[in-house]
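Before relying on records like the one below, remember that each one covers exactly one chain. Contacts with other chains, cofactors or solvent are not represented anywhere in the record.
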Amino acid sequence: MSKHFKKVKGYFDSGLWSIDRVRNAVIKGWITAEEFKIITGEIF
């Protein structure tokens, strides 16, 4: 699990972050593409 997974998931689940912001977290290396799928339910 990535260092920022719980933080990003919390932001997304609470509505603070959009799916695009989570996608940017993958691009910046904060989370993996697999974690993106876990958080959003969509494929990166």
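The two ends are 17 Å apart (CA to CA).
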